[in-house]
């Protein structure tokens, strides 16, 4: 039996005024941020894991970094965003938050940025950037995750496109969806990770390093 989105969303936790403002801004300006039920689920998993250092690939306007920082008062987050306009917006929102001192925002392409000056080991990595590049992001950064660390990956549904046959996907998105499906097959068979799919929000993948 399927559970309705309305029922799941009835459990969404209340947010402060800044977060509500960011959600409204993202909706009005078509900025992709994590769905509310999914960020609640992610934060609960992180509370259980209790990471001290998190690396986020894809800051957008800083929403998920701020949500994670608020949920984890002893955690430092390094987050990467390549879009200069979104970096500027993220900086503005971060400056208004009491948790901004535990967030380091880096501007640049995550496939080119050197994170080692900001940390050589991260207990958790959260990937929420270009969907067609997930495997490249994973391969670049998984070396910084210790045994027992977790890589969390959002948008595995890709708004329902992942469930379609490739010929049914709009032509301009076929390469991205092909790469996403190939990545899913690859990670589910990866000898160094135990992975599981959480059907919340737009689909959350959890990869536990052995």
Automatic annotation (TrEMBL):
<dbReference type="GO" id="GO:0008757">
    <property type="term" value="F:S-adenosylmethionine-dependent methyltransferase activity"/>
</dbReference>
<dbReference type="InterPro" id="IPR050362">
    <property type="entry name" value="Cation-dep_OMT"/>
</dbReference>
<comment type="subunit">
    <text>Homodimer.</text>
</comment>
<dbReference type="GO" id="GO:0008171">
    <property type="term" value="F:O-methyltransferase activity"/>
</dbReference>
<comment type="function">
    <text>Catalyzes the methylation of 5-hydroxyuridine (ho5U) to form 5-methoxyuridine (mo5U) at position 34 in tRNAs.</text>
</comment>
<feature type="binding site">
    <location>
        <position position="155"/>
    </location>
    <ligand>
        <name>Mg(2+)</name>
    </ligand>
</feature>
<feature type="binding site">
    <location>
        <position position="128"/>
    </location>
    <ligand>
        <name>Mg(2+)</name>
    </ligand>
</feature>
<feature type="binding site">
    <location>
        <position position="81"/>
    </location>
    <ligand>
        <name>S-adenosyl-L-methionine</name>
    </ligand>
</feature>
<dbReference type="GO" id="GO:0000287">
    <property type="term" value="F:magnesium ion binding"/>
</dbReference>
<keyword id="KW-0808">Transferase</keyword>
<feature type="binding site">
    <location>
        <position position="128"/>
    </location>
    <ligand>
        <name>S-adenosyl-L-methionine</name>
    </ligand>
</feature>
<keyword id="KW-0819">tRNA processing</keyword>
<protein>
    <recommendedName>
        <fullName>tRNA 5-hydroxyuridine methyltransferase</fullName>
        <ecNumber>2.1.1.-</ecNumber>
    </recommendedName>
</protein>
<dbReference type="InterPro" id="IPR002935">
    <property type="entry name" value="SAM_O-MeTrfase"/>
</dbReference>
<keyword id="KW-0460">Magnesium</keyword>
<keyword id="KW-0479">Metal-binding</keyword>
<dbReference type="Pfam" id="PF01596">
    <property type="entry name" value="Methyltransf_3"/>
</dbReference>
<comment type="similarity">
    <text>Belongs to the class I-like SAM-binding methyltransferase superfamily. Cation-dependent O-methyltransferase family.</text>
</comment>
<dbReference type="GO" id="GO:0030488">
    <property type="term" value="P:tRNA methylation"/>
</dbReference>
<feature type="binding site">
    <location>
        <begin position="109"/>
        <end position="110"/>
    </location>
    <ligand>
        <name>S-adenosyl-L-methionine</name>
    </ligand>
</feature>
<dbReference type="InterPro" id="IPR043675">
    <property type="entry name" value="TrmR_methyltr"/>
</dbReference>
<dbReference type="InterPro" id="IPR029063">
    <property type="entry name" value="SAM-dependent_MTases_sf"/>
</dbReference>
<feature type="binding site">
    <location>
        <position position="154"/>
    </location>
    <ligand>
        <name>Mg(2+)</name>
    </ligand>
</feature>
<feature type="binding site">
    <location>
        <position position="64"/>
    </location>
    <ligand>
        <name>S-adenosyl-L-methionine</name>
    </ligand>
</feature>
<keyword id="KW-0949">S-adenosyl-L-methionine</keyword>
<keyword id="KW-0489">Methyltransferase</keyword>
<feature type="binding site">
    <location>
        <position position="34"/>
    </location>
    <ligand>
        <name>S-adenosyl-L-methionine</name>
    </ligand>
</feature>
<dbReference type="GO" id="GO:0016300">
    <property type="term" value="F:tRNA (uridine) methyltransferase activity"/>
</dbReference>
């Amino acid at each position: 039996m399927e559970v309705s989105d309305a029922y799941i969303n009835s459990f969404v936790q209340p947010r402060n005024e800044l977060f509500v403002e960011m959600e409204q801004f993202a909706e009005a300006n078509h900025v992709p941020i994590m769905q509310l039920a999914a960020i609640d689920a992610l934060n609960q998993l992180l509370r259980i894991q209790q990471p001290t250092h998190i690396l986020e690939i894809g800051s957008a306007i800083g929403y998920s970094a701020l949500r994670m920082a608020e949920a984890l008062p002893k955690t430092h987050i390094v987050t990467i965003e390549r879009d200069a306009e979104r970096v500027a917006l993220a900086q503005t929102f971060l400056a208004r938050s009491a948790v901004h001192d535990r967030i380091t925002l880096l501007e640049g392409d995550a496939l080119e940025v050197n994170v080692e000056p900001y940390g050589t080991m991260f207990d958790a990595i959260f990937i929420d950037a270009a969907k067609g590049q997930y495997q490249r992001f994973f391969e670049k950064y998984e070396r910084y995750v210790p045994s027992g660390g977790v890589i969390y990956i959002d948008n595995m549904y890709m708004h329902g496109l992942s469930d379609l046959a490739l010929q049914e996907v709009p032509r301009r998105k076929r390469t991205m969806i092909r790469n996403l499906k190939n990545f899913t097959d690859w990670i589910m068979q990866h000898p160094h990770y135990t992975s599981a799919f959480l059907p919340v929000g737009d689909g959350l993948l959890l990869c536990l390093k052995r």
